[in-house]
Structures are given as structure tokens and as C-alpha cells.
Amino acid sequence: MRTLRFLLQKEFRQIFRDPAILRIIFVMPIIQLLILPWAADYEVKHVNLSVADHDHSSYSRLLISKVTSSGYFNLISYNNSFHAALEEVEQNKADVVLEIPAKFEQTIVKENEGTLFIAVNAINGVKANLGGAYLRSIIQDYNREVRLKWIQFPRFSPETSIEVHSSNWYNPLQNYKYFMVPGILVILVTMVGSFLAAMNIVKEKEIGTIEQINVTPVKKHYFILGKLIPFWVLGLFILTMGLLVTWLAYGIVPVGSFITIYIYAAIYLLAILGLGLLVSTMAGTQQQAMLISFFMMMVFILLSGLYTSIESMPVWAQWITKFNPVTYFIEVMRMVILKGSGLADISRQIIIIIGFAIVLNTWAAISYKKRV
Amino acid sequence: MNNDTIISVEGLTKRFGDFTAVDSISFQVGKGEIFGFLGANGAGKTTAMRMLCGLSMPTSGKASVAGFDIYKQTEEIKRNIGYMSQKFSLYEDLTVRENIRFYAGIYGKTNSFIKEKTAFVLKQLHLEKDADKLVRSLPLGWKQKLAFSVAIFHEPQIVFLDEPTGGVDPVTRREFWNMIYKAAEDGITVFVTTHYMDEAEYCDRVSIMVDGRIDALDTPSGLKSNLKASSMDEVFLMLARKAKRTGD
């Protein structure tokens, strides 16, 4: 026990003397939480629109002004031919082309129907999809308006009208930041817990001090604990900083209890520290550790449901997410912060993460050898 | 094996795949001896030493260090030895005092022992004023002397030194050897590898490793008269020239 105290004292001293680590601990969470949620926006805005108007009527002008006043589109050019508009797309200036055919107004009034054509630049799939969808719904709205103008007596309305009312639970304003911020916080805690710990151990390998420790009678498990405990504390500290920033910058206060979050985070960090330890046993130099970390972080972020919904992934990818510890913490954070779930509601995630902790730490402890 | 033998090695071998780094070496080291372990780069000195310290698992052969078996009793061995590796192994981002305290602490020394002996060691090294400076800021020679003091701080029976004076100026080397003599006087057995032949002259006995085997083992004067050489330098060159392995 006394040995452990000496080891911990040394670790904490070194951590607090390293300006790079301090920056990572204090500055990184704040900056990332302040910047990333704004960039990781699901809403598509500023879709560049190019119009090819062959009609030049009051109806076509009404349509165009309706589209541009929606706030989602920037009208970048107004052309007389479809070719000219498409050229804008080719030059990457426009994302969507709206073509209004000649005699648009005339056919609507006479034949009670009209045709419009939309061409979408599908290189950026999300932007194209949503941009096209927005445009379609604006046109539908326009369509209803035009019809309402003609029908004087709504009770004889020939149109069946089913109106849909919806209410959004847990995030009534559909503020995507409520969705992103808890997830980004999880990524931060994960990075500190696994990769800072891994780098720390590998650094000792590189400078040779680990060999010096290995010729002392320090027991393997004490050495490992001496490395894990400081980063466990740091992980919880970063979580606290993150929750503070979340509250100050976005006004997000967990609906559920902090205790639930901290209990889960404490167990989660054990699992993730085991992973860090495992990385350190695999890497001989800090560069190697860094590369392994980069690769794993990519998988962690993209296959965790942070940005994209897991349910819409292919089945095999869904299976990979099940082996990603980050997935469960993100789930838990969203459940507790937005829905107010309690310990009983997240019991499945707790059991799974305990499993991760046991497997990863056992694996790492076996791989860590004092003698080669 | 008499009672004064503290290290006893018999047929110790280490293979890495096809490569035999240490090829069935046998020798004994007596208590309080300064034992020089010489050899060209790549001769297998460090590997042999690492096996004796319990850092590396032997392929075959027998050895005991401080009376403990190197296969089964490595933890006991570790309690009784000090080790100073080729690489500088103190923490550069800790102060002199913190380094001493840390290493003494993990050897299970009491606070009062640590306090008392730290003052003594700092005085011996003339580092009282720099005790709270980061080790990073010390000159290399001082670092090496400090590393040696830390390696024997817990008063081990044997201290293993792997090229302790590499890259150090002649004056500091001289001071370093004075410290080694002092340690030997205090009853600590010194097992040291070196490339400097003048240092080999300071040893009680010297073994010379060539291609993983021990080719010669005697007192420096015995070696010189056997091979009719005038200096250890000459002895070393005569033996090491036979080596087929290239250095690393």
C-alpha cells in the first residue's frame, strides 16, 4: 500500500509538471465543447440555388420569393436557360437548380396543374438530400397557397386535408446541441482515459525508466494501479469540467441525476483505462501508440452513434458498434441528460461496461510483463 | 562454491530465435568484489546482465544471485540488488530529492531512513543546493553520479552497472570510480560493464566476453602476464579481434 502511495505521488507530480498534459486537461475540453457542437450541425442551411425561369410570370416570381425567403437557400443566379443554371452547378457555385417551364402560370390556371423540375448536385449527399427535400416542401406549401386563393369556400374544399400534429419529447425544440454535446463529452473522457494513459506508460518505456522500475521489487499490479488511478481521477475531472462548460455555454443541465452519470463514468473509465493499458503493451514507442490511438479513435467516433444513428447502419456495422465501449456511454449520457433515466434504466449498459472493464484489464495485465 | 560467493553462474544461455546472444557462460563473483564484465558491442554483456537482474528469462543454464535462483526467486533478487542501466533512468521531470525519495520509497524504506540518508547522499554528491532542482537541469556527469547513488540507496548486496560512465568526462569518471570503491568498501558487490580499459584496471577481476562466450577471466595483472600484454587495452584487442559478430 505504501508503495502505491509513492507511485501515485510521483505520477501526480509528473502530470502537473507537464505543460502539454495540463493544456490537454484544461484547455482541450473547453475549446472542443465550445467549438465542435456548432460545427457538428445536422441542419442544412445556405443551400446555393440557381433558378432557370422560362416563364417570367407573377406566379414564378411568387415561387422564387417564397423559396428565398425560407432562409435555407441563397439565390445565386437567375437564368433564362437550364444550361446556364447547370453550369453554375458544374462550377460548384450552385447546389440545386430549380427549373420553371415556360407557360407555367398559364398551365396552372388553365389545366389546374403544373410541372417543375429540380436538379440536385449529389456530391454532398446530406446537403443534396435535405436541400431537395426542403425545396419540395416549400413547393408543396406554395401549391396549397395557390389553391387556397382560388377556393372561396373552404367547406366545399375538394381537397381532403389530414393535418398532422407532432410533439417532440425530451428535446422539444429539436436542438441538435442537446444531442451532440453529451456525445462529444464522452469522446473527451475517452481520449483522456485511454490514450493519455497509454502515452504515459509508453513514454516510460521509451526513456527507459520502466526498466528501472522492473528491477525494483514493485509488484506488477501496484505499478499498473499507480498508472491507472491518476488517469481515472483525471477522467472524472474532465467530465466535471465538461459538464460545467455544457451548463455555462449551452444551458444544458442533466434531467437525471449527476450521481447516475458519475457512477457510470467511474465504471466506464475503468474499461477505457484497461484499453489504454493494452495499447501501451502493444506499442514500443510513443509514435506507435499515437498511430494505434488515431486508428481506434476514428472507429470509436464513427461507429458509436455520435454523429449517425446506429439503427440506420448496415447490420454488420451495427455489430461493430456493440464492441465499441463508447457507444454505451454515449447512449447513457443522452438518456440521463435528456431523458432523466436512472440507474435502473441503464442497467443493461452498466452490465456491459463492467464486462468490458473485466476483459480489457485482464487482457492488459496478462500482456504486461516485467520479464521478457 | 564457497560461502563468499554471491553470484554463481553455470552454463547460462540466452537465445533469440537462431541467434545465441549469450552462449553457456559460467563464472562466480565473490562478496565485496568489483567484477568487470568486458566485451565489444554486441558481445552479449547487457543480455547476460539483464538475465541476472531478472529482467530477461534465460533459455537454459543455472544461476543464483545473492543466494536466490534467477528462475524462481526474481522478486527476492530484486530486493537485494541495485541496477543502473545504459540509458539514464532517473525521472528528468522530478527533482533530485523527489527521485531519491521515490526509489527509496518503492524499495520499502522508512521515512526516517530516507530522510537521514538523503541528507548524507546529497552532501556526498555536493548537491545540497540543487536538491530541489529538476534532474533535467543537471550536467550529465552529475546525473550519472546521482543515478549510482540512487541505485545503491537501499543498500543492496550487489549493484549492477551497465556502462555507467558512457559519455562522461575523465574527471567525473575518476570521481565515479571513487564512489564505486566506496560502495565496495561498504560491502556492496559491484558488477560493472565498461568499454574503458583504464577502468578495467580498477576492477578486482575481469571477464572478457567474445561472441557470447567468456574468453578470459582473471585479475587484470593475471590477464596481462598470461597474454604477455603490457596493458588491458592490448589484452582486450587480442581477444576481441577474434570476434566474428559485428557490433551493434
Automatic annotation (TrEMBL), chain A:
InterPro entries: ABC-2_transporter_component, ABC2_TM, ABC2_TM_bact-type, ABC_2_transport. Keywords: Cell membrane, Membrane, Transmembrane, Transmembrane helix, Transport. It is a multi-pass membrane protein. One of its GO terms (molecular function) is ABC-type transporter activity. One of its GO terms (cellular component) is ATP-binding cassette (ABC) transporter complex. The chain crosses the membrane at residues 20-40, 178-202, 229-253, 259-279, 291-310, 350-368. Pfam families: ABC2_membrane_3. Residues 136-371 form the ABC transmembrane type-2 domain. It is found in: Cell membrane. Belongs to the ABC-2 integral membrane protein family. This is Transport permease protein.
UniProtKB/TrEMBL annotation, chain B:
One of its GO terms (molecular function) is ATP binding. Residues 7-236 form the ABC transporter domain. InterPro entries: AAA+_ATPase, ABC_transporter-like_ATP-bd, P-loop_NTPase. PROSITE patterns: ABC_TRANSPORTER_2. It comes from the Bacteria. Keywords: ATP-binding, Nucleotide-binding. Pfam families: ABC_tran (PF00005). This is ABC transporter ATP-binding protein. It comes from Paraflavisolibacter caeni.
